[in-house]
Amino acid sequence: MLELTARKADGWNCPLPSALETGLAALARAGRDPRTLDVSVFAIAVLGANDADARRALERAGPTAQLFGDVETEHVFGGPARARERIADLARRGAREIVLDLRGRPVDEAVDLLAREVVRAL
Fold first, then answer.
1. Which residue among 6, 67, 101, 107 has the highest number of C-beta atoms inside a 10 angstrom radius?
2. pTM of the model
3. What DSSP character marks residue 36?
4. Which residue stretches of the chain have pLDDT < 50?
5. Which helix (H) or strand (E) holds 39?
6. Residues 45 and 110 sit within 8 Å (Cβ to Cβ)
7. Which helix (H) or strand (E) holds 30?
8. Strand partners, 102
9. DSSP codes joined into one string, 40-92
C-alpha cells in the first residue's frame, strides 16, 4: 500500500504512532519524498488533569483502548504537559496532522481538556 501511496497519493494516514518512521522510510525507498505528502497519524488519546488521573481514565477505557499498542508509552497519554510533549514529538517525527481517538472520559470533558490545556499551549 505504501508503494501505491508513494506513486499516487497526496497524503498518508499512518495507522499507529509506532509505525510512523518505518512508513516514512518505506515511502522514501519507493521514491517519494515524505515531505511532499500530507502525513497524518492515528493515535489513542487518554488525558487527565495529571498522569495519575490519566491512568484512572485508561482503566475506565478498558482493554479495547490497548488494541492499538500500549497507550501509556506509544500514544497521546497523560496530563497536559505530557500530552503536549507527545503531540509535539509526533510532529517532530513527521506528522502534520494527528487524528485522536479520545478514550477514558466523557467526550465533552475530554475535548474541553484537550482544547483548554493541551492544544492551546502548543
1. 6
2. 0.92
3. G
4. none
5. strand 38-47
6. yes
7. none
8. 45
9. EEEEEEEE-SSHHHHHHHHHHH-GGGGGGS-HHHHSEEESHHHHHHHHHHHHH
